[in-house]
Amino acid sequence: MSPKRPRSHLNADLSVTKIQEAFLSMGWNVEILNQDYGEDLLVRIFEGEAATPYTFYVQAKSTDRIRKQGGGPVRYPITFDHLQHWQEFWDPVFLMLWERESGEIIWEMIQQPALPIDTSGKKAKVLIPRSNRVDPQGLEKIQAKTIARHQRLKREQSGTEALIETLANYTGAKIDYRSGSGIFTITEEDGKIAFVLFGPLGKLATAMSESRGISLEELVEIALVEHAEATETLRSGKTYTMHCKDGSTLEFSSEEEFDAFFERDIYE
Question: For the chain, what is the total number of helices (H) and then of strands (E)?
Answer without folding.
Answer: 7, 12
